[in-house]
Design goal:
It is a single chain. The chain is of the alpha/beta class. The protein has a single domain (5-157), classed as 2-Layer Sandwich (Nucleotidyltransferase, domain 5), CATH 3.30.420. It is built from five helices and five strands, in the order βββαβαβααα. The chain has a five-stranded mixed β-sheet. Helix 1 crosses helix 2 and helix 3 (104-112) crosses helix 5 (136-157).
Length: 158
């Protein structure tokens, strides 16, 4: 039995990667762009509902990791990230799920050997592991998941 781990690249388009208890990895990207005639908080409620659906699909998320972003391209991106992060961490606290942020450079270095790798290098790294990411958000989540798996599997062996 494997540890169930969910890895997220938070943002308006959130990349996700999940290893379930059988060791099977699934991934994708989901868009939380505000919809027409929708209040400002609805995207975060949709995000919370989506996480709950993932939790139900695997019966239990044992660990959750997210890409920890310290610099944003603009104010809107920073506000969106903060909202997703607040929603995520509150949800994890409510459900007793351990969570941690992992710096972007750490994830990129693990995946490509370079802490400042570009999007195309992250996509290539995911493909080299046998995945077919639709975009860089999914590739980043897959890289984070593989980083987390190595940490968890090494800790269980040691």
């Amino acid at each position: 039995m494997h540890t169930t781990i969910l890895a997220l690249d938070l943002g308006t388009t959130t990349g996700w990667a999940l290893r379930d208890g059988s060791g099977h990895i699934t991934s994708g990207a989901v868009c939380f762009r505000p919809q027409r005639f929708e209040g400002g908080g609805m995207r975060f409620l949709r995000f919370k509902r989506w996480i709950a659906e993932i939790q139900q699909s695997v019966s239990e998320i044992q660990f959750l990791y997210f890409e920890e972003v310290r610099r944003h391209a603009g104010v809107d991106a920073a506000h969106a990230y903060g909202g997703f992060l607040a929603t995520l961490t509150a949800w994890c606290e409510h459900h007793g799920i351990p969570y941690a942020g992992v710096p972007v450079g750490t994830i990129k270095k693990h995946a490509t050997g370079r802490g400042n790798a570009r999007k195309d290098a992250m996509l290539a790294a995911a493909r080299a592991r046998g995945h077919t990411p639709a975009d860089d958000n999914e590739a980043d989540a897959l890289a984070l998941l593989h980083w987390a798996i190595e940490r968890h599997d090494a800790a269980q062996e040691g």
